[in-house]
Amino acid sequence: MALTLAGLAAERPLGLRVLTGEAGLDRPIGWVHPTELTDPQAFLEGGELLLTTGLALDEETAPAYVRRLVAAGVAGLGFGIGLSHESVPHSLVATAAEVGLPVLEVPRKTPFIAITRAVSRAVAADEYATTVRIGHAQQELTRTAVGKGGPAGVLRKLAKLVDGWVLLFDRTTVTEAAPASARAYGASLREELERLQTGTRVVSLGDDEVVLQTLDTGARRVLTVGTPEPLDTAGRHIVNTAVSVLSLALEQDRAQAAAREALRTGLVELLVGGQAELALRVLTATGARPPESPWSVLVFRGSPAARRKLLGALDGELFAARSGASVVVFGPASVAEPAAEAALRIGGLHGGVAGPVAARDFAAGFEQAELAAQAAEAEDKLLISAAEHTGRGLLSLIDPAVAQAFAGGLLAPLRHHDETGRGDLVESLRCWLEHHGHWDVAAARLGVHRHTLRNRITKAQELLGRDLDSPGVRAELWVALQT
């Protein structure tokens, strides 16, 4: 931490006495500059402690001299007594008090070189501490980036190192935040992000100073660091280090993600090509654990952006891969519900589900799921099962009058219940069957709570007197609901 005027005045061996400007004693001393010039502005950078014996000053010239020092941005004035002046001129002290310039009286026994040495030692110690802090921070950020922490860990570490908050943007969308509450700043920075093409931009957000720095990555990403006080030299170096390690980590992640995606696509191609044994062997060799068969196979269609979001949402949770203009998901029967829920959240996706199928029959399941997905897309539905899609073809083989009579008799209890205004069992049953018995997805499509839907299906089962867990019963009901 830089030496301040107060810290210098507290060094007793120097014998300095504060005459005025107590409010400014917290100013850091950048350097010491002894001079007897009455106008030293041309030789000053600002932040210096100026030392003088007042050789060319008197009561008349001192006020203007003080004002010139303030204009030059000096931190304070050290006035040596016992040579040109027995005491500091009264007009100098009065003017300094008026303009807020700290004045330290330097006794005759204290040479100016002693003050210079004291400041020099403090500056050297501060620079050393800064170097150590930067080195320590670089090590911590690098270890975090190459370890398990990844980019998110780097952001958390950076926020602690600069005692502030950090955001990582992909274009104008916050992808990571440290702490999590910092996400709230994202919307306020959107306009600044749109202005920033490359490089660095410094803005104010409330009481914080915010540094926006673009990363050297294929995608347009921006690191944003907010602190209550402007970053010091060490802080700026630490942020630059974070920019470097984040750029490398994110590019590495992107390359690994592309490799994983290519591998999964290749595995699906092997399965579709009837080489299930080879596909499973490759999957095992990469360290992954193949899903237990038999498998449910899901195919989702939609815009490229929606498919990309679905892959991202399912990454690490389920086996999902690109296949042409579709996303393929397969695994145990339980994969259907989370995959459908993710597709519902993203929107703009339509899927088909087939199975269960053995690994060697994957190609047939994939084809059935793809046909069902095309039907779902045509009807603007989230998910249609292959069984349901195939069942529709059977309706063409049934005489319409027979089908209507069958449907009328089977569904009569439900329609009578609905006509009396006591519920909406027919539409609830249709939606529930349409979504393969997935409670959350069907409830969301109906706009009701899943418990409400469960109550309705339970009531329908009571009125029908049939077991709705039976595949045969479900098939009959679906045929009846289609007529």
Automatic annotation (TrEMBL):
Residues 425-482 form the PucR C-terminal helix-turn-helix domain. It comes from the Bacteria. Pfam families: HTH_30, PucR. Residues 15-122 form the Purine catabolism PurC-like domain. PANTHER family: CARBOHYDRATE DIACID REGULATOR (PTHR33744), DNA-BINDING TRANSCRIPTIONAL ACTIVATOR ADER (PTHR33744:SF1). This is PucR family transcriptional regulator. It comes from Amycolatopsis rifamycinica.
